[in-house]
């Protein structure tokens, strides 16, 4: 049976993972600047294997509006181009023989609002994940044997403090991303 400290540590660890997942989701949202992270979820069919794009090529940003993808094997050039074209990012790769250039167009106001809306959805998903972890932790607190009513209440209050802290972190990360998108 777990004790209060291990429940709190486990809850913090799981909530950290929820925040990391949230940040990963946000990293693929396009902002006004070129960011190699937007290609993170692209998978390339490389000699029959599905591989993340960053494992078959280097991705650089020579300027704020351009991504340059340089495959480590020229045979990967066309599959990379196809994977980018087929993705839902709406990018148009330009194959230059040994590298692929992607020019990122300016974001329209409408597109920025859509991106903020997506970010809000990711933030809400993260908040829900944190709250679900709180519920699980509260259930665990109630299962600890040998605790009096006051100790259970104190444990529940501690779990709530942890939850509030992580919900605030979600909000902070979201607001930062929102400024990045709208800015």
Q: Please write the string of helix (H) and strand (E) elements.
A: HEEEEHEEHH
How many beta-strand segments? 6
- Please describe the biggest sheet, giving its number of strands, its sense, and whether it closes into a barrel: 4 strands, antiparallel
| Average pLDDT score | 88
CATH architecture of the largest domain: Orthogonal Bundle
Provide a count of the helices.
Answer: 4
The secondary structure category is alpha+beta
Shape: elongated
By CATH, the superfamily of the largest domain comes out as: Ribosome-recycling factor
Q: What would you report as the Rg, rounded to the nearest angstrom? A: 22 Å
Distance between the termini: 50 Å
Strand order within the widest beta sheet: 3-4-6-5
Low-confidence stretches: none
Description:
The protein is of the alpha+beta class and 183 residues long. It has 2 domains: 4-27 and 108-182, Topoisomerase I, Chain A, domain 4 (Orthogonal Bundle); 36-103, Gyrase A, domain 2. The protein has 4 helices and 6 strands; from the N terminus they run αββββαββαα. It has helices spanning 4-27, 77-86, 109-143, 149-182, and strands at 43-46, 49-52, 57-63, 66-71, 93-95, 100-103. A hairpin with a 2-residue loop joins strand 3 and strand 4. Helix 1 runs antiparallel to helix 3, helix 1 (4-27) runs parallel beside helix 4 (149-182) and helix 3 runs antiparallel to helix 4 (149-182). The longest helix is centred in the last third of the chain and has 35 residues, at 109-143. The mean pLDDT is 88. Its main location: cytoplasm. One of its GO terms (biological process) is translation. This is Ribosome-recycling factor.
């Amino acid at each position: 049976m777990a004790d209060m400290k291990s429940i709190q540590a486990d809850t913090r660890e799981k909530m950290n993972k929820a925040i990391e997942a949230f940040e990963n989701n946000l990293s693929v949202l396009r902002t006004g600047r070129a960011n190699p992270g937007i290609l993170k979820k692209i998978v390339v069919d490389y000699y029959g294997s599905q591989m993340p794009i960053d494992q078959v090529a280097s991705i650089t940003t020579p300027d704020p509006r351009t991504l340059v993808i340089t495959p480590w094997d020229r045979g990967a050039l066309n599959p990379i181009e196809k994977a980018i074209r087929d993705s839902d990012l709406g990018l148009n790769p330009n194959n230059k023989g040994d590298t692929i250039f992607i020019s990122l167009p300016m974001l329209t106001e409408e597109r920025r609002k859509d991106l903020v809306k997506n970010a809000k959805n990711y933030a809400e998903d993260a908040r829900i994940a944190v709250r679900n972890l709180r519920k699980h932790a509260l259930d665990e607190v109630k299962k600890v044997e040998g605790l009096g009513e006051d100790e259970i209440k104190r444990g529940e209050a501690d779990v709530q403090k942890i939850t509030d802290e992580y919900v605030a972190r979600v909000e902070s990360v979201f607001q930062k991303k929102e400024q990045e998108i709208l800015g």
